[in-house]
Amino acid sequence: MSPEVAPPAEPGVAEDSVRAAISKRYADSGGERYGISAERFHQIVAEAVLRYAGESSERGELIAGLHVADLVLARACADGNEAAWEAFLTRFRVPLYDAAYRIAKNDATGRELADELYAELYGVSNRDGERRCKLDHYMGRGSLEGWLRAVLSRRYIDRYRARSREVSLDEQLEAGVGFAAQPAEDNPQPHSAMGAAVAQSLAELDAEERFLLASWYLDRRTLADIGRQLRVHESTISRRLDRLARTLRKRVRKRLQAAGLSSRECDERMQELDVRDLNIDVAATLKQESPVESFHR
Amino acid sequence: MREEGIKPVKQPPSNPLRDELARSRPVGPHPDEGSLAAFAEGALLARERGAVMEHLAACAECREVLSLAADARPETAALEGPRVLPVRPPLRGWLPWVAVAAGVVVVSSAVVLHQREAELRTPPPGEPALIAQASPPPPVTAAQPAQVATPQIQAMRKRAPQPIASPGAVSAPATGTITGAIDGSPAQQSEDAVTVSAGALETGKKAAPPADAPANESFASLPAPQPVGQAHGAMGPAARLRAEPQLDSLNAATAAAKAAPAATPTMAAAAPATITGASATTASAQASGFGGSGLAGLSKSLARPRWRINDSGQAERSLGNGEWQAVLPDVRTKMRVVSVFGDQVWLGGEGLRLYHSADGGATWVPVDLPSKGGSAPAIAHVHFDTAQTGSVQAGDGVQWSTTDGGRTWK
């Protein structure tokens, strides 16, 4: 069931240290309870190391951060170990279904979602008659429960997208979108300078800043949502967004002026393209605790 | 089947920031669920985190996965401390103390306000039947209350730091016509006792009676305690006071006896200086009833509403904070007399206009007196023996009486 893996790529001292680190984690894993030998454990962890650790310096940290108990349990389940399945059911059956209900926000859909995943976790046969178990894909990065939630979420989105493609015209009509005009793909004429300035300014931001902006302005998530995802307090998100909007506004304005626009023209452009409507809407609908200053003042 | 977990985001009209954010496309394949789970739990290597973040910044789908997975966490896990880092990890050292101090202030304020509100709902002690009227009745002498004082009250007065200083006059800063109308009738003397009991009964709820209360023993041997004793067992003090004010003379003695041993000069000084005569006894007993709590005693005395009619004939109320607040500000009638019995307040004025408040002056209703063909321009006296029984007298001597708290007059 588990693929044969080679030991970590780098031989010598690095390999020895990796072996030592893996051996050290074996006691934490409780592998012997489910019939996972030390050698088998080494293979399992080495697979994760090969996949995720790009540099030898990262291997120790990666091995130390692995959820080895969950990893061993998952592998033992994939191997068909009864005791492991019993432990898995005891620990994860209820959280799995609870998570599915929370994701789907609908009991029937949630149950269906969880049932489907459950079947895959238990193992389904492919065309060649080989039984494949979804738990084989778990590599110990993060908790097994978190992994299950991520799998459920991804699966739910896939279902949603598939469902969206199947929506009939009648349903679209009922939903009021059947005859909605398609938004213009690109209409840069009135604000081409503005668009370019914004694009350049966004490109200067780092990934996390763009993630914040996309989550807030595009996905319209709440500060609390974003804070949960980044593991920081929502007020921190609020301040960072506030600062980010100010920075971005300054940079865009500077670029517009560099493009030859006068100060007054800059003001007009920024006001024409004000996104305060977005902020007002967000504050009204999402009940934000502290309003974030608009992108354009 | 409807998918409810994901709702398409309804976007407002286009703007360049959103357009540019939406235009960005993710680089590379989606991170696997393990990486996303580890990202959500902060378990990724720094390099990995940067790569995943780069992808997330441009991939709405993965952001959605992350958000759904975060929402699917059990509430307890979502609220765990380590998942939400403090905004400013090194909290300034003095902030917790400020928070504690603020909490103390809030709690103290709440206690004071609560007591003040409770006081407003109960008959104000020390003012059994204060009647402000143009022609004051004969002043009360110190001997008059003494004539009806039970041994318990006498004992209380002996212990009270401020003896009855003068006839029961109220030195309210009114027009000089407000006096305490405590006459020598047994009913009025009973009201005097009601005043005492009102404060003391309150204290009885807060402070346990002294273990060695000799007055309690003497109270038990009183000749007339039986019906009151039954009522005492059947009802709470406040309810009893409202329901059967005539029984409160005995309650007063009880409460006074409980309260008096704890009286201290300090607490007596906290009582309003405007209360004299029998009211001084009330104030002392009331203050002492709080077991030496200066704040509580002060709040009780502050919470006692006081009444007056100013030079322009406007009735005013003070809740003890030194400010006089006009009542019935929209009524043009010049008031001539105010009568207070517990929460029942009566205002009489020119044109035989009579107003009644059953909640200590918070709300008022006009009361129509049946015509008796009199010629007097104003009400001169309002007098209530109990909350139900009282009389109104016009300047020419025409009189109306009620036995049902003012609902009907004859």
Are there runs of chain B of 5+ residues with pLDDT below 50, and where? 80-90, 125-302
Distance between the termini of chain B: 76 Å
Helical stretch count of chain A? Answer: 14
**Estimated share of beta-strand residues of chain A:** under 5%
- Reported by name, the CATH topology of the largest domain in chain A is Arc Repressor Mutant, subunit A
The largest sheet of chain A, given as strand count, sense and whether it forms a barrel, is: 2 strands, antiparallel
Classify the beta-strand content of chain B into a percent band: 5-15%
Quaternary state of this entry equals heterodimer
Order of helices and strands of chain A: HHHHHHEEHHHHHHHH
Biggest interface, and residues per chain?
Answer: A-B, 77 and 63 residues
Note the total helix count of chain B.
16
Question: What structural class should be given to the helix and strand makeup of chain A?
Answer: mainly alpha
Average pLDDT of chain A:
77
Per CATH, the superfamily of the largest domain in chain A is Winged helix-like DNA-binding domain superfamily/Winged helix DNA-binding domain
> What is the level 1 CATH name of the largest domain in chain A?
Mainly Alpha
Give the distance, in angstroms, between the N- and C-terminal Cα atoms of chain A: 60 Å
Percent helix of chain B = 40-55%
Widest sheet, order of strands of chain A? 1-2
Q: What does the model show?
A:
Helices cover 67% and strands 1% of the residues of chain A. Chain A has 297 residues and is mainly α. Chain A folds into three domains: 13-75; 80-158, Rna Polymerase Sigma Factor, Chain: A (Orthogonal Bundle), CATH 1.10.1740; 192-286, Winged helix-like DNA-binding domain superfamily/Winged helix DNA-binding domain (Arc Repressor Mutant, subunit A), CATH 1.10.10. A two-stranded antiparallel sheet of chain A has the order 1-2. In chain A, helix 1 (13-29) packs across helix 2 (38-52) and helix 5 crosses helix 7 (144-166). Chain A starts with 12 loop residues before the first helix and ends in an 11-residue tail after the last helix. Helices cover 42% and strands 13% of the residues of chain B. Chain B is built from 16 helices and twelve strands. Chain B has helices spanning 16-23, 33-40, 46-58, 60-71, 75-78, 95-121, 143-148, 151-159, 186-206, 214-220, 226-234, 237-243, 248-259, 265-270, 278-289, 294-303; strands at residues 130-132, 178-180, 306-309, 315-318, 324-326, 335-341, 344-349, 354-357, 365-367, 379-384, 390-394, 399-402. The chains are: A mainly alpha (297), B alpha+beta (410). At the A-B interface, helix 3, helix 5, helix 7, helix 9 and helix 10 of A face helix 1, helix 2, helix 3 and helix 4 of B.
